[in-house]
């Protein structure tokens, strides 16, 4: 029975990144996926996903995203693949009842985080939005926009493929097309059974 320091179940965006970083750190790691990633059976398929440094969902994400942008460039250098397109990104609020003192407004939260963390950005009024982004010519006069030149999009399926390939080059083992049927743990670690084999590990990431 093969034993690893770490096992990772699921090799989508999070799993692929985890396997790669563990392998890069010298951990004896294996990843398991019931399909053959990248694939269309999870939440990581499709051509693009937006990314920006000022994440209006919460300040806790800012250092994570900053690090991810560094990692995308590192992966591009190692693989020769284009993963992160720094096209710039626009966030805007356009509604008649917009209240510039509303702390729950997503655009205002995004602006506030950019100011707090020193993220390069521009705040645009309705006229500037219409001039620079004519596809949004119908915004209301009270509209407000946040433009981040460092934002853009990543290519998720390509990111997964690159990280899994580099993980294998770093010594990771990938079990693709295997379904996990049972997981158990005891004082010795974790046992994972698939429809093809049984594996043991000190730690498990799901």
TrEMBL record:
Domain FAD dependent oxidoreductase, first and last residues per copy: 7-206
InterPro entries according to UniProt: FAD-dep_OxRdtase, FAD/NAD-bd_sf, MTOX
MF term (GO), any: flavin adenine dinucleotide binding
Keywords annotated in UniProt: FAD, Flavoprotein, Oxidoreductase
Cofactor(s) it depends on: FAD
UniProt cross-references to SUPFAM superfamilies, sorted A to Z: FAD/NAD(P)-binding domain
Keyword Flavoprotein: yes
Pfam families: DAO (PF01266)
PANTHER family in alphabetical order: FAD DEPENDENT OXIDOREDUCTASE DOMAIN-CONTAINING PROTEIN (PTHR10961:SF7), PEROXISOMAL SARCOSINE OXIDASE (PTHR10961)
Protein name from the UniProt record: FAD-dependent oxidoreductase
Organism per entry: Pseudomonas reactans
């Amino acid at each position: 029975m093969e034993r690893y320091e770490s096992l990772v179940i699921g090799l989508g965006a999070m799993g692929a990144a985890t396997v790669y970083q563990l392998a890069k750190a010298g951990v004896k790691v294996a990843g398991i996926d019931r399909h053959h990633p990248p694939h269309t059976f999870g939440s990581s398929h499709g051509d693009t996903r937006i990314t920006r440094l000022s994440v209006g969902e919460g300040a806790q994400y800012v250092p994570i995203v900053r690090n991810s942008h560094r990692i995308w460039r590192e992966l591009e250098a190692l693989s020769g693949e284009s993963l992160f397109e720094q096209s710039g990104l626009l966030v805007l609020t356009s509604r008649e009842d917009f209240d510039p003192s509303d702390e729950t407004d997503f655009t205002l939260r995004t602006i506030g985080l950019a100011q707090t963390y020193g993220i390069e950005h521009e705040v645009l009024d309705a006229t500037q939005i219409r001039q620079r982004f004519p596809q949004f010519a119908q915004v209301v006069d009270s509209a407000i926009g946040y433009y981040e030149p460092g934002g853009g999009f990543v290519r998720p399926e390509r990111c997964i493929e690159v990280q899994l390939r580099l993980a294998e080059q770093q010594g990771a083992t990938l079990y693709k097309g295997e379904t996990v049927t049972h997981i158990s743990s005891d004082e010795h670690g974790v046992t994972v059974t698939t429809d093809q084999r049984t594996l043991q590990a000190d730690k498990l990431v799901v």
